[in-house]
Amino acid sequence: MKSVPFIPDNAPFSSQQRLWLNGFLAGLFASASADQAEAPAAAKPAVPLTILFGSQTGTAEGLARRIAKQSGARGCQPRVIDAATHASVDWKSETNLLVVTSTYGDGDMPDNAQEFWDWLQTDAASVLSHLNYAVLALGDTNYSEFCAAGKKIDERLAQIGAKRIHDRTDCDVDYEAPANAWIDGVFGKLVSHATPAEDAKDITAETLRPLQASGGVYSKTNPFSARLITNRKLTGEGSGKETRHFEISLEGSGLNYESGDALGVYPSNCPALVDDLLRALGCDGEEAVAIPNGGELSLRKALTDCFDITKPGAELLQKVAEKNAMIRELLAPERKADLKKWLWGREVIDLLHEISEARFAPAEFVTLLKKMAPRLYSISSSPKAHAGQVHLTVGIVRHDSHGRARKGVCSTFLAERVDEQTMVPVFIQTSHGFRLPVNGDTPIIMIGPGTGIAPFRGFLHERLATEAKGKNWLFFGEQREACDFYYREELEQMLADGHLTRLSTAFSRDQSEKIYVQNRMLENAAELWAWLQEGAHFYVCGDASRMAKDVDAALHTIAETAGGLSKEAVVQFVQQLKSEKRYQRDVY
Ligand SMILES: Cc1cc2nc3c(=O)[nH]c(=O)nc-3n(C[C@H](O)[C@H](O)[C@H](O)COP(=O)(O)OP(=O)(O)OC[C@H]3O[C@@H](n4cnc5c(N)ncnc54)[C@H](O)[C@@H]3O)c2cc1C
Ligand SMILES: NC(=O)c1ccc[n+]([C@@H]2O[C@H](COP(=O)([O-])OP(=O)(O)OC[C@H]3O[C@@H](n4cnc5c(N)ncnc54)[C@H](OP(=O)(O)O)[C@@H]3O)[C@@H](O)[C@H]2O)c1
Ligand SMILES: Cc1cc2nc3c(=O)[nH]c(=O)nc-3n(C[C@H](O)[C@H](O)[C@H](O)COP(=O)(O)O)c2cc1C
Prior knowledge:
The chain is α/β, with parallel strands linked by helices. The chain folds into four domains: 15-207, Rossmann fold, CATH 3.40.50; 224-267 and 374-429, Elongation Factor Tu (Ef-tu), domain 3, CATH 2.40.30.10; 271-371, CATH 1.20.990.10; 444-587, 3-Layer(aba) Sandwich (Rossmann fold). It is 34% helix and 20% strand. The strands form six sheets. Strands 1, 2, 3, 4, 5 and 6 form a six-stranded parallel sheet that branches. A six-stranded antiparallel sheet has the order 14-9-18-7-8-15, with helices on one face. The two termini are 44 Å apart. The relative contact order is 0.09. The structure holds flavin-adenine dinucleotide (FAD), NADP nicotinamide-adenine-dinucleotide phosphate and flavin mononucleotide.
């Protein structure tokens, strides 16, 4: 659709300025939907652009939508595609494809991109060979398979003959700056590869607006300073765990969330650990050092608030390796497993204590640390039941290793370092992929052992507040009924009131053999299958490494035994559940 420009041709602007202003104003007045963004108000036809995202917890999805919103002003007609819906795309008529994907598990695709990846490896994917494309990969260098999903997709697209118009960028947790640079680079190239090519010539670097977070005022890059109003232990005497219920006030923030979203929290480090580091560095903490977002702070303040001072990152290890043969050898690509083993339970402080060559001036030391990363927590409240608040259900990380008591940075920050005066920097991480069914009559099955119960407490409160009539079945598991049955009273009340239709518990250590949630699923296979046949949505939250895999296997078994499906039909059935968004996971 061609629209009338906001700034007419005879206005006192250069053509570049006019193009920019028209695009900018068009962006401001465009409908809120980025998926179907209008063509910009520039005179030239827009460059068609498809942005496909693979995302587990919403970061890549949010980025894809922001790219789409802003590409209107850059002479494009964008469309955002969830990788799970790739089969509905008429690829023959596509021209330009941007892929924005995170990596999950151990170098795996995020759930919503798994089926796309399976398809991409088949001959049918040759239908993409005419595309111009570029890949933006999100990941975390703490994982050995850094950005593996993006790397695989990038390589495969090149292999089938698609034209890479810009090199892939692999982003670490602090993705904003590299993502912005990638976007600027892509737009320059995209335009010169576009068909018809005439669209290209007016889109230059000067016409590009910097990428900014959209939505509310507070965001990951501008967190809200919130107050912690409740900090209560959920585990009782005799428990092997410390799990806590936190309530955080969002009053005055204007922040909104939906059940299924996560809260991002920026912690501060433990002052005792900062003291130990200062001692090991031979510093008093008053030394001025540069901080990641510009400016200077005292070394003590910078180590407390701005840097990850626990996990040794690649840059620190590389620097130590320059002077230390043992670390140098461990960094050899074939010694990955040995390096992982050596690092397990060791922190930055151990490197300073154990390796005599690890000596740094304060200014250099901070350049070798990673920026403090926020931690995500599945929200365990519903905005409809707990207005202005966010509740969290957090396992506090404490362990001993190499002769030291260790503390998880964020979980212990919330548990023991936040008082009435301390502000907690937070943001909402939207998770479009983990949502209650729109129809309140739809039954739901929730598998949430341990802290995995968090979003399901939110779901149950939400359905209570909205008087949704659909049946609710919760599977909860922990070690011992007497001390680890989180939210027991409110769950039993919901059961007594009939809001919770079924509550199946699995206390793993109350008997000699382990009983887990998947055992309860299998014991109730016929009924669980019947719920699925009634259209139930199936949700899993909690441990990704073992539980989520075993629950997935149990679901397959149930489809085979109670559903009477063949092995091939089972795979198809589970795939269909996923593509209908009836099988959703929030695993970590
Ligand atoms: C989408 C999402 C939702 C989440 N929701 C929740 C939730 O609802 N509740 C919740 O509790 N958590 C949740 N998490 C996990 C949470 O984000 C944090 O990872 C967790 O709280 C630990 O953070 P921390 O800063 O306390 O620990 P960190 O300082 O990050 O330390 C954790 C690290 O310590 C090391 N470690 C831990 N135990 C040991 C050990 N025994 N020996 C040696 N090393 C060890 C491991 O390397 C581990 O990665 C979620 C994560 C994601 C991605
Ligand atoms: N990044 C971090 O540092 C961090 C911090 C906190 C939590 N987490 C992770 O968060 C997840 C949840 O932790 P959590 O402490 O709340 O609960 P959890 O460790 O998942 O334990 C909850 C229950 O699940 C059981 N369980 C163990 N293996 C299982 C399996 N394969 N299938 C099904 N159930 C199984 C446990 O039994 P047993 O214990 O008796 O085996 C326990 O009864 C885990 O991945 C944990 O590692 C990570
Ligand atoms: C359970 C889990 C596993 C992960 N595995 C990897 C990995 O193997 N490689 C990697 O580079 N990043 C890994 N990440 C980091 C994510 O890719 C990164 O946080 C990304 O920004 C998340 O984007 P999303 O919210 O769009 O899914 C993992 C994160 C989690 C929580």
